[in-house]
Amino acid sequence: MPVAPAASPPTRQPGGWCFDTTYLSLPGRLYVRQAPVPVRDPQMALFNRPLAAALGLSLEDLPEEDLARLLSGTTVPAGATPLAQAYAGHQFGHFALLGDGRAILLGEHLTPDGQRVDIQLKGSGRTPFSRRGDGRAALGPMLREFILSEAMHALGIPTTRSLAVTTTGEAVLRDHVLPGAVLVRTAASHIRVGTFEFAAAHTDPATLEALIRHTLGRHYPGLVPDGAPATEAAAALLTAAIDRQCSLITHWLRVGFIHGVMNTDNMTLSGETIDYGPCAFLDSYDPATVFSSIDHGGRYAFGNQPAIARWNLARLAETLLPVLAPGGDLTWVQTLFDRLPEQFDRQWQQCLTDKFGLSADAPRDLITAGLAAMQADEADYTNTFAALTDARQKQEQTGTAPCPFHTPALRRWYQDWAAAAAPPGSATRMAAANPRRIPRNHQVEAVLTAATETGDLRPLHRLLEALTEPYRDDPDHIAYTLPPAPQERVYQTFCGT
Ligand code: AMP
Ligand code: MG
C-alpha cells in the first residue's frame, strides 16, 4: 500500500496550512486520535520566520495572542487531524512500550514546493501514552531543542526543525518548579525504529507490511516499484535506512555531536536527527566523552555512536525478519550487518581526509596520529580543524604555513601533516567539512539561564544568529568560537523530561 495521493488535492487553508495526513490511512493500532490540551496563558517565546516561510505559512498577520494560541495547541489549525503515535523502543538496551506521551502530531502539511512535513507539538498535554508523565515540557529544554536543531540544520545535517516555542503560563514540576512550554517541531516524519518495534510486537503482519510500504513511499519513493513483493520492499527499506544512518552518524562525528540518548525510539527511518535531550558538542577531543547525566555506562559516548547505530539497526532488522526472510534464510541480512562496521569506517575515513585536507590515499597513520595528538593535548576539536583549514589556505596561497598550534603533541604532528601531499582544492574541502562555530555547551547554558531566569532572550537570539552560517569565518562572531574557561566547563547535560 503506497502512500496514496489524496483523492482530491487538499485545499490550502488560511495561514497557508495544507494538511494531508496519510498516517491516518495506516491501521488504527498505530495511533490514537487525540487533541492537544489547551494551555492557560499562551505567549510567544520564539518564532522561526524563515522556516515558516519555507513551509508556505503566512502567520505574521495574526495578532500575537492568536499566534501563541495556535502554536501552543490551544487552538488547532484548519484541516489538522491531531493524533498521538504509538511506538516502542529499546531505552539503554531495555525494551519498553512508549508512544507520544507528551506530543501530538497535528498532521502532515504539504509545502508549496511539494514537501510533506510532519507538524508536531511537543509538551502538548497528556495522551493515552503518557504513563505517569504529565504530558508537559519545561521552557529550558524546549529552547534548547530549538537552538540545537536549528544549529544542526545550519550545519547541513539532516534534522527535525523547530518552528516555535510558546510559554504556557503553567508550571511544570521536575526537580524544581519550572515554567511550562510547547515546542512546534517539524520533521520529514516521526517514524522511528521504535515504530517498527511496536508494529512487530503488538500488531499483525498486515500492519507491519503497511508500515513498511508507507515508510518507503514517504522517504524512499521509487526505490521499489509499487506492488513489489513484501520481501523485496522490506529488504530495500532496511538497506536504505542503514545507508542513511551511516551518513547521519558520519555527519555527527564530523561536527563533534553527541546525541546522548540514542534509544531506538529516538532513531528515525527518514535519517533525520531527532530528539534533542541531553545532547552536546565536544569541546576537547576525546572519543569517550559523555555529557548525559543519565548515561552512567557511557553507552552513548561520542565514539560509541557508530556501534550503537548498528545495534539499533539490528533491532530494526529483527522487526522485519518475518517479512524479510519468511523461508528463514538470513544469510544476506547477516552479511549486511557483518559489513556494516566496514561500510561506516569507509565513510568516516573519507570524511576525515576531507577534515584533514588529505588525499584519499594519504597514510591512515597520519590521520590516526592527528586525532591522538588532539586527544593528548586536550585540544578543542572544532578550533583545531579550523586552525588546520587556515593553515592549508595559507599554504595554498604562499607555499608555506607556520604551525598554528602551541601544544606539544600537535606541534610535533604538524610537521608530518605539513609535509604530506596536499591534493588540489583541499582548502575548499576542509572549509566545507570543518565548521567555525558550533553551539558550545557553556554558551547554550548561558543563553538558557538568561532566558529562563530573567526572561532575557537577546543572548539566545545572538547565539542563533552566530550559528546561521557556521562555516563562514566571521570576526564579528569570534566570541562564539571560544572554548569554555575552566569555570565555564559543562560536565553534564540533562534531558529535562
Ligand atoms: P524521550 O526521552 O523524550 O525520548 O521520551 C521517552 C518517552 O517518554 C516518550 O514516549 C515520551 O513521550 C515520554 N515522555 C517524556 N516526557 C514525558 C512527560 N513529561 N509526560 C509524558 N510522557 C513523557
Ligand atoms: Mg524520544
Molecular structure report:
A hairpin with a 5-residue loop joins β6 and β7. The protein is built from 14 helices and twelve strands. It has 497 residues and is α+β, with helices and mostly antiparallel strands. 40% of the residues lie in helices and 13% in strands. The protein has a domain at 14-193. The chain has helices spanning 49-54, 64-71, 139-154, 193-202, 205-219, 230-255, 305-324, 331-356, 364-376, 381-398, 408-419, 426-433, 441-454, 458-466; strands spanning 31-33, 43-47, 83-85, 88-91, 94-97, 103-110, 116-122, 137-138, 161-173, 177-187, 257-258, 280-281. Mean pLDDT is 95; it is low at 1-5. The structure holds adenosine monophosphate and magnesium ion (MG).
Q: Radius of gyration in whole Å, from Cα?
A: 23 Å
Q: Give me the number of helical elements.
A: 14
Provide mean pLDDT, rounded.
95
- N-to-C span: 36 Å
Question: Could you tell me which ligands this complex binds, including any ions or cofactors?
Answer: adenosine monophosphate, magnesium ion
- Indicate the multimeric state: single chain
Can you tell me the overall shape? globular
Q: What does the main sheet amount to?
A: 6 strands, antiparallel
Helix-and-strand structural type: alpha+beta
The ordered H/E elements are: EEHHEEEEEEHEEHHHEEHHHHHHHH
Proportion of residues in β-strands: 5-15%
User: What is the number of strand segments?
Assistant: 12
Give start-end ranges of low-pLDDT stretches. Answer: 1-5
Indicate the percent of residues in helices: 40-55%
